[in-house]
């Protein structure tokens, strides 16, 4: 069956199409054509635009269910359902530095969810435990560990191909371990790190391909002592995430980063949820979350991130959409946009986003 969806604007793989129609056959994306050349009568969306859905590469839970406190497939299903309501169709559930038992339970939850055919989850993101204590932020110091090849191999075996991403301090990691992670297609991201400029730049040449939440929990941004911040901003290809909530990073600094890295800066929510048990008891503090008095996560959705990028950071809509879709998709090497289930329509006011397959 051929289905066609039209809008004044369609965003796809970094391109902007006007007065166009997206064509799907048996639920698989085929092409974008001029609306007047559509092979079937399209469903036309007024006052909105079409795009593959949002991707969130760093999110910890939803609906009062933090993955590290509820490490089970049902939590992941809740996350997927909750995020879909605001246009996020693919996410990478994240576990902050925790006990070995909790981390492994989360790895198995993601593995079991994916192996059972669960959709909307790209794999797991381990944020720690291999981080610098000096840059731990809200991470619990007692859980921080030195990185060893034995530990990496064990978690690779446990995850069975579902370990998607790791945030670590590259100055604490050997080239051999970076190579091991790369060999198993785990995206290595530098974060919670004391690396100086030279160490960070060298790590990019040795297999670190991303940087986690730019400006937060990292060295640098000093005019006499450049560190990971400057290394990320000046590197031509390293992917770099940022939290555009106006709390973790000022909107002016988001704009600066977007000017430096227009094709490799992408948005994450870093969103947690209210939690009253365990080592990370997140409570809502206005527009963000805090744990033990420390900023611990955001409360935004990817749709709100997009709104902020356009209305507060003052980016062109096309660039903002890329930061929420195309760039993280490129990092994850996912072809998620081939499925009609992963396309959304967003109203022009950026207040609502819905999956077109549900309409």
Question: How does this model look, in words?
Answer:
This protein has helices at 73-84, 100-115, 149-159, 175-183, 197-205, 228-234, 251-260, 302-311, 317-324, 326-332; strands at 2-12, 15-25, 28-34, 43-52, 54-59, 61-62, 65-66, 88-96, 124-127, 163-168, 187-190, 210-211, 239-242, 265-267, 282-285, 288-291, 294-298, 343-347, 353-355. It has 359 residues and is an alpha/beta fold. The protein folds into two domains: 2-51 and 340-358, Roll (Urease, subunit C, domain 1), CATH 2.30.40; 53-324, TIM Barrel. The two termini are 16 Å apart. The model has no long low-confidence stretch (mean pLDDT 97).
Short description:
The chain has ten helices and 19 strands.
Topology order in helix (H) and strand (E) letters: EEEEEEEHEHEHEHEHEHEHEEEEHHHEE
The total number of structural domains is 2
CATH C-level name of the largest domain? Alpha Beta
Which shape, going by the Cα principal axes? globular
| Number of continuous helical runs | 10
Overall pLDDT metric = 97
Strand content: 25-35%
Question: What does the radius of gyration come to?
Answer: 20 Å
What would CATH call the homologous superfamily of the largest domain? Answer: Metal-dependent hydrolases
